[in-house]
Every structure is written in C-alpha cells, then in structure tokens.
Amino acid sequence: xxxxxxxxxxxxxxxxxxxxxxxxxxxxxxKAAYETRRAAAYQLKEIQIETANLKIAALSFGKQGNPPVIxxxxxxxxxxxxxxxxxxxPGINLSALDFPGHGKSQHRSGVNAYHFIDYAAxxxxxxxxxxxxxxxxxxxxxxxxxxxxxxxxxxDRIERLAMVEGLAPFTGEPDTMLPQFRRHIEExxxxxxNGRVYRSIxxxxxxxxxxxxxxLDSAKLIVERNLEKTENGYQWRTDRRLRKPSPLYLSDxxxxxxxxSIECNALLIRSDQGIIRNxxxxxxxxxxxxxxxxxxxxxxxxxxxxxPKLVARHLLPFLIGT
Length: 322
Prior knowledge:
2 domains; alpha/beta; 3-stranded antiparallel beta sheet; Rossmann fold; 18% strand; 8-stranded mixed beta sheet
C-alpha cells in the first residue's frame, strides 16, 4: 500500500512520464507507485486455479456477471501479454491463463512433454474450476491454435472464437514422425542445464525483444512474469523443457478435419508483418473455418501488445456480440 504522506498526483505524473528503461533506475517510491497504478488501471487480480492436473495461474480482469472470456497466450509468453489490451475491452470478464510451464503456473511433472493437444485439457479443467460452462475464447499465436482446437472438441461450450496471429499448429506427415520423435527423446534425455542468469529485468527484456517481434515495453511485461529472483540475478521461471522438440506433430489432415468442425462464429486478426501472412506453412487454412471473419491490420506478431487500441477496436464488437 502506498503511504498516505506521498503526493500521489505528482508521483503518478512521474510514473506516466517514465519509460521502462528509466523505471529500472527509479526509486522504490516510483516503482511501487508504478505497480499500484498499473494494477488499479487494469483492475487486475492474480488468481490460482486448482485443477485435477496441476495449478494454473491467471490474471483476472473485469467484473463478475460480464460475458466470460478465457484468454490464451503464445509460446514462451504468459498471461501478462493481455495486460495492454484489457483496458480497451470493457464489458467482459477476462481470465488470462498462464499455460503450464509458463509464467506462474505449475510445471508438468517428470519427463512429461509439452504437447500442443494437452493444453486443451488444461484450459477446459481451468474453465471447470472457474465455474464456466459456456464461454468465449481469445487466443494469440499458440493460444489461438489451442483455442481453435477446443472450439472443435467442445462446440457446445464455446460462445465465440477470437484469434490474433494464430489459427492452427505446425504439422508433420508420417514420414517425419520417427526423426521428430528421435530428436525429442535425445533432447529429453540430456542433463538439465542451470539456465542463463540476467543481471536485471531490463537485460532479460532486451534479450526477449531480440528473440521476438515486439517492443521493449511489451517484452518487459512478459519477462517480469517469466522471471524469478536468485542470489546471482534473474533466471527464467518458465520450464526449460518448453524449448525441447515436440514428440510429434498433428498431420495436415488432422488439422483440416478439426478446423472444418468448428461451429461457432470466429474472428481472425492477421498482421501484415505477422506469421500467418508471411510463413507459407501457416497460410491457406482460414477458409476451412465455416463462420470466420478475417481482418488484416498493420503490425507485427505481438500486435495485441504493441498496438492494443487498434486490435481492440476489432475485437470488442465481436467479443460482446454487437
């Protein structure tokens, strides 16, 4: 809690004028005010969801009673990727999950792999724990692919399907199965490494920015939730097994079959510098979804973070059904 003696209007003015780089060097007063202002602005609530499999961390926004929306993030991102856009999505009750192994969610046990199809059960178990029988899905990248799979599996539970820069996973054909599974086994059996240590959150954010298509501010939002403080600096809390090769991929026929089975209304937002319009392996599947609306915008793969107002302008009418 902020001490009452502080002049909050002055401090918050400083916060509004402080960049992410400057914030790293700011006083504890400014940092505390920044976190308090951010939490208040986004009506953010941290929750832990107990499921039959494991504990799922999530960020909850909005009010109970509003249309429920479950948001699913991309690979190596986390629930914080939906923080920038939430302020532009009034009138919904948004629960942004951390997938297992990401953010603050529990890791899978033993040598269990992180397979694309397993995320569907994680999401549905979380929805059950939240008491949601019918809801809308909002997904980005990997999360969009998982959302589409869920919409096909349980059509009676999904009100609408909104996807940003994602639709379906990478695929593999039978002749690639053995080499792919061999790579997975070889990497899984290697001794675990300690992982890289960063001297500051800002240093980790710069590394994340270089690895992905996003602004430094967006990268910082993600890495703050994916890091943990150690004696020597900051290390990733995300499960390092997420970077290991998948044991196998669904075939193109599998993906086409379930995309064609989606019954609810769907929205896909594609960026001109994003992956769907520029990666040949992901193009051409959109027409398989019967009731799909496609909107093309300017931007990169993390457009919902870097230009949230633009993306929300198209998302909100769809999410609330207007």
